[in-house]
Amino acid sequence: MRREDIEAILAEIGELKCKSQKEVEEARVRFLGKKGEVTRLFEEFRTVAPELKREFGKTLNELKQTVTAKIEELRAAAGEGGAAEGPKEDLSMPGEPFELGSRHPVSIVREEIVGIFRKFGYDVAEGPEIEDDYHVFEALNFPPNHPARDMQDTFFVSTGHLNPLLLRTHTSSVQVRAMEKMDLPIRVVCPGRVFRNEAISARAHCIFHQIEGLYIDENVTFADLKQAILLFAREMFGPDTEIRMRPSFFPFTEPSAEVDVSCNICHGKGCNICKGTGWLEIMGCGMVDPNVLKASGIDPEKYSGFAFGMGLERIAMLKWRVNDLRHYFENDLRFLREFQTATEV
Question: Which fold has domain 105-344?
Answer without folding.
Answer: BirA Bifunctional Protein; domain 2 (3.30.930)
